[in-house]
């Protein structure tokens, strides 16, 4: 089941003061980014955040699940998704620990 656009918009709207939050459609679901750095996925109307040590410490009682079959487990955010301040803090903590995105390679022009 693909995620509902209203849910995606809700999640993006919940995250404040962590840069420009965007969601990009990927294979029928969504990648969630802060200033171009991917920190999570929205799959089947559920929010998954990439696992980090600091994020784990912040969440405390972590629930992990794979966002799709064959994926590595991520933090599944369910109950606290309504708490904008908490969710924004988690995203801020997470993006500080994640590596910067690799620069995109320029496509070669055919001569």
How are the SSEs ordered, and which strands pair?
Layout: H1 5-14, E1 21-26, E2 29-34, E3 37-43, E4 46-49, H2 53-59, E5 64-65, E6 74-77, H3 84-97
Helix pairs in contact: 2-3
Provide a descriptive summary of the structure in words.
It comes from Aquimarina litoralis. Residues 15-96 form the TfoX N-terminal domain. This is TfoX/Sxy family protein. It holds the Pfam family TfoX_N. InterPro entries: TfoX_N. It is a single chain. With 111 residues, this protein is an alpha+beta fold. The chain has one domain (5-97): Yope Regulator, Chain: A (2-Layer Sandwich). It is 28% helix and 26% strand. It has 3 helices and 6 strands, in the order H-E-E-E-E-H-E-E-H. It has helices spanning 5-14, 53-59, 84-97, and strands spanning 21-26, 29-34, 37-43, 46-49, 64-65, 74-77. It has a 6-stranded antiparallel beta sheet. Strand 3 (37-43) and strand 4 (46-49) form a beta hairpin. Helix 2 (53-59) packs antiparallel against helix 3. It starts with a helix and ends in a 14-residue tail after the last helix. The mean pLDDT is 92.
Order of helices and strands: HEEEEHEEH
CATH class: Alpha Beta
Counting H and I runs of at least 4 residues, what is the number of helices? Answer: 3
Radius of gyration: 15 Å
Which outline best applies? globular
CATH architecture: 2-Layer Sandwich
Describe the biggest sheet?
Answer: 6 strands, antiparallel
Q: Give the count of structural domains.
A: 1
Protein name: TfoX/Sxy family protein
Pfam family, one: TfoX_N
Organism: Aquimarina litoralis
InterPro entries: TfoX_N
């Amino acid at each position: 089941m693909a995620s509902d656009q209203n849910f995606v918009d809700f999640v993006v709207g919940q995250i404040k003061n962590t840069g420009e939050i965007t969601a990009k459609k990927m294979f029928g679901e969504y990648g969630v980014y802060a200033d171009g750095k991917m920190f999570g996925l929205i799959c089947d109307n559920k929010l998954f955040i990439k696992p980090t040590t600091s994020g784990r410490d912040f969440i405390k009682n972590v629930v992990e699940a794979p966002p799709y079959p064959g994926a590595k487990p991520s933090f599944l955010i369910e109950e606290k998704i309504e708490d904008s301040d908490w969710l924004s803090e988690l995203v801020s903590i997470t993006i500080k620990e994640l590596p910067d995105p690799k620069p995109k390679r320029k496509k070669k022009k055919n001569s």
